[in-house]
Amino acid sequence: MPETLIILFIVFLLIVIPWSINRRMKANNGVGFVKAKAISPPIHVDRSAANHPEIQRFMREHKKIEAIKVYREITGAGLKESKDAIEALEAGRPVTWGDPEGNSPLADIGEGGDAGIRELIRRGNKIEAIKIYREFTGVGLKEAKDAVEALEREMKGQSDE
After folding, report:
1. Consecutive 10-residue runs of the chain (161 residues): their mean pLDDT?
2. Structural domain harbouring 89
3. What would the DSSP string read from start to end of 42-87?
4. Are residues 47 and 87 in the same domain?
5. Rounded CA gap, 11 and 38, in Å?
6. Which of 100, 128, 143 is at the close of a domain?
């Protein structure tokens, strides 16, 4: 009798497990387990354009096309870049802020923030400067390191003059 129960249990498992896997695959369009969504990199957005009153108004009114048009007019960016920027802002996805002209490594930090980073560089605390830069801008480690090093070179060039 116990052997019969064990055999029935094994047969039951041999039927239920494949049925369950097959059902899951059908529910997920042929994929046995749901794939994790890829994390997209932050979109570069011009801060002054993103804060433009007209763009803000169009975004509040859910007029994406108009917001994209105004963003393109202000920044001179292409259609895809403008669309990506507006959609990232609208969805609350990570963005990096920047000066479209790329004039200064600290152009995207805003007023006041650069003084603290400059002081950290003067003291030789480059790692802390990179951390602060990343907090202000939301950029990756490499971009922050490159920007802080560019600022360091700029500061050394000014002190040599």
Report:
1. 82 80 66 49 71 87 92 83 85 62 52 69 87 77 84 74 52
2. 40-100
3. PEEEEHHHHT-HHHHHHHHTT-HHHHHHHHHHHH---HHHHHHHHH
4. yes
5. 39
6. 100
